[in-house]
Write a structure and sequence with these properties.
Elements (H helix, E strand, L loop, with lengths): L2 E7 L3 E8 L3 E9 L5 H16 L6 E8 L1 H7 L6 E6 L5 H4 L2 H5 L4 E4 L15 H11 L5 E6 L7 H13 L4 E3 L9 H32 L5 E4 L5 E3 H6 L7 H14 L4 E6 L4 E7 L2 E2 L7 E2 L2 E2 L7 E4 L5 E6 L6 E8 L1 E2 H7 L1 H13 L10 E4 L10 H10 L4 E2 H4 L5 H10 L3 E5 L2 H7 L8 H12 L13 H27 L8 H6 L1 H7 L16 E4 L3 H12 L3 E2 L7 H8 L2 E13 L2 E6 L2 E5 L2 H22 L2 E17 L2 E17 L4
Parallel strand pairs: 1-4, 4-9, 5-6, 5-7, 7-8, 11-23, 19-22, 23-24
Antiparallel strand pairs: 1-2, 2-3, 9-10, 11-12, 12-13, 12-16, 14-15, 17-18, 20-21, 20-22, 25-26, 25-29, 26-27, 28-29
Helix pairs in contact: 1-7, 2-7, 5-6, 9-21, 10-11, 11-16, 12-14, 15-16, 15-17, 16-17, 17-20
């Protein structure tokens, strides 16, 4: 009998489960996610689930972690300060491909160098300017990203840059050719930038999680869920944290399949920060062929075809003043619920809310608070950002007490984006407390905050809502509406016979929306989902029955829906994929593009055998390093040939090797 521990760190809660032999859930538990030190929440959840089960920590044979940390960080624009080294590309490519937006003002340099499509050097690497750049920014960034032209055909310049970064700065460096074997330099550069930004964050999480598990007495090896639902070792996740984007959502898909046995269904997981929707087809989640997309970023990471929306229980409620009726929208930014902050700092929150309610006219920042996130590295801040952070100190404050000039709003926004500061404001979680749907935190504070929000004036001069309860119902209704849109978008995107129109536009189309209301006039409209929805997340049971009714579909709410991610974390397999390419730079020459550089062969079969052998060794070694046992290997070949003058000519070949097995358990 093997006892398996699964842990998931979400935006609001950290979940833990113990399974017996992947067959039975013995116990589950929740603890608040502690943003200042995620391991504190991990420890609380693990201690709680061990106490509930009566199992000794030493009996755990395998521990596995899934996390929304990387996903949430990218959706919210957070992460460490990084520098990009862009080799062989034009400076204007940075803006054309969205890299400047992703850098958010972080330093970058475009250098001469790079290779051509055949792997030959196109220009000499400019090491003089590279060294000067590294010396200038060594102390102001947490890591470097490097992307060179055609690095997947010859990584020599990326390898040299990695060597110089370590020599000059000692900082971690993310090389694009190690993250993807595919072409498309700007997209690989984006992936490398995001990987570099996440390294410090994921490293701290895994390191502290290992420490806390050891302290509790869990000696089993720690695994981490990758974005495609497979498991990797903690050491592998530390080096390539970008692969953990969509880790939590991927784990939820695996958990949903395990709990329900569903073959064909949409799986929707609502957390504190995001709602993640994916399709189970024939019992398997589809892998996104274009690479994982999270928020505004498209990466080259293999991950489940997941649509992630900035919508959750802790999404910020935004007031819409346009039009006579006014209204609200939710997200995409996550904020701290007022009711949660009030449970932790009651005097600060209640005194400020009471003072605001006594004012006749609404103030700009009423009902909003701010606090620093302890233990974060504050490097590369501007003088204004430093001043605002110092003013916040270690306590919670009403936002109006911190912002002394309108220009400081931008400084605060940058501190929030860097993960150094949290803003507290009205959220759906607060609305749930007002309506009695939740009781974990301070419902009285939530009522006061919604009373303040409700008195905002619409274009017609009327109050937005008459009472806090009316305001709460408006927020919950908006959450249901936006969740329906997210589900419809995912369904349109995954249609086997795709529509030409944009899925988001189709979901919002007037005919679609009228059809959800079963419009009958001269025209009868009846629309909805034709597949079941598996609703996951702690609040799914609260919100999703009404969503199923709106969409006219079966809503499946599994018994352990609240901890689906933690379940999925321990029932997955270790799977490693390695891919490589063979090209033909001239007739009779077959060039194998390897991570150590290109190798030439005089016949096709020898080249194929060489590439497959190298990829097989790499995949099996990676799977073994991740802790897999009984490893099975599958090889796929994609050969492209062309007919020229009546004969067939080799153009290119791509080989993919997949090695997989169940993780070894401690005995």
């Amino acid at each position: 009998m093997a006892l398996l521990l699964g842990v998931d760190t979400g935006g609001t809660y950290t979940d833990a489960v113990i399974l017996r032999d992947e067959v039975e859930v013995i116990a589950s538990a929740k603890a608040l996610t502690t943003r200042h030190d995620l391991a504190v929440g991990v420890g609380a959840a693990v201690r709680s689930v061990l106490a509930q089960s009566g199992i000794a920590a030493a009996e755990i044979a395998l521990a596995s972690l899934s996390t929304t940390l990387a996903t949430n960080a990218l959706v919210e624009g957070q992460g460490g300060r990084v520098a990009l080294i862009y080799i062989g590309f034009r400076e204007r490519d940075l803006e054309a491909h969205g890299l400047l937006d992703a850098l958010k003002g972080d330093p970058h340099i475009a250098l001469a160098g790079g290779h051509n499509h055949a792997g030959a050097e196109a220009a000499v690497l400019d090491e003089v300017h590279l060294r000067a750049f590294l010396e200038t920014h060594a102390a102001s960034v947490g890591g470097f990203a490097v992307a060179a032209q055609f690095a997947t055909r010859n990584p020599a310049h990326e390898l040299r840059v990695m060597e110089m970064v370590r020599e000059v700065t000692g900082r971690p460096v993310s090389a694009s050719h190690q993250l993807s074997a595919k072409l498309n330099g700007p997209k690989r550069a984006m992936t490398a930038v995001l990987n570099a930004r996440l390294i410090g964050m994921i490293d701290r999480l895994i390191g502290r999680a290992e420490d806390i598990l050891c302290e509790i007495g869990v000696a089993a090896p720690l695994m981490v869920v990758r974005g495609d639902g497979a498991l990797i070792s903690a050491s592998q996740a530390r080096v390539r944290p970008i692969e953990t984007i969509l880790s939590g959502p991927a784990a939820s898909i695996v958990g949903a399949r395990w709990m329900t046995g569903a073959d064909h269904a949409l799986v929707s997981d609502i957390g504190g920060t995001t709602t993640d929707v994916a399709l189970l087809r024939d019992g398997r989640p589809a892998i996104d062929p274009a690479g994982a997309r999270v928020g505004a970023y498209r990466t080259m990471v293999e991950a489940v075809a997941m649509r992630t929306t900035g919508l959750g229980g802790d999404s910020e409620v935004n007031f819409l003043s346009e039009g006579l009726a006014g209204g609200i929208t939710l997200g995409p930014r996550r904020v701290l619920p007022v009711s949660l902050l009030a449970a932790e700092a009651p005097e600060v929150v209640h005194d400020a809310l009471d003072a605001a309610l006594r004012n006749v006219l609404p103030a700009e920042h009423e009902g909003r608070f701010v606090r620093a996130v302890a233990g974060q590295r504050a490097e590369g801040l501007t003088p204004r950002e430093k001043a605002v952070l110092q003013r916040i100190g270690t306590q919670a404050h009403p936002l109006a007490d911190i912002l002394r000039a309108r220009i400081e709003t931008g400084a605060l926004a940058q501190l929030v984006a860097r993960g150094l500061v949290q803003v507290a404001a009205v959220t759906p979680s607060d609305a749930s407390h007002v309506l009695g749907l939740a009781d974990a935190w301070d419902a009285q504070a939530a009522q006061k905050a919604l009373a303040l929000f409700a008195r905002r004036r619409t274009g017609s001069g009327d109050r937005l809502a008459a009472t806090p309860q009316d305001m709460a119902r408006m927020i919950i209704s908006q959450l249901e509406h936006q969740t329906c849109l997210a589900l419809l978008e995912a369904a349109f995107a995954e249609e086997e016979a795709p529509f030409a129109e944009d899925p988001a536009a189709l979901a919002r189309h007037v005919l679609m929306q009228r059809g959800l209301g079963r419009h009958t006039g001269l025209v009868r409209l009846d629309t909805g989902l034709a597949v079941p929805v598996v609703g996951l997340g702690a609040s799914a049971a609260t919100y999703y029955p009404a969503i199923g009714a709106r969409l006219g579909c079966e809503m499946i709410l599994p018994e352990h829906a609240a901890v689906a991610n933690a379940i999925g974390a321990v029932v997955g397999r270790v799977t490693m994929r390695e891919a490589g390419t063979i090209t033909a730079p001239s007739e009779g020459k077959y060039r194998v593009h390897l991570g150590t550089g290109p190798e030439d062969f005089g016949d096709e079969q020898t080249a194929m055998e060489r590439l497959e052998s190298v990829l097989r060794d790499l995949a099996v070694a990676a799977a073994s390093e991740a802790g897999a046992q009984d490893i099975q290997v599958n090889v796929s070949r994609d050969l492209r040939r062309a007919g020229i003058e009546g004969r067939e000519v080799f153009v290119e070949a791509e080989i993919t090797v997949e090695a997989s097995g169940r993780p070894r358990v401690a005995v």
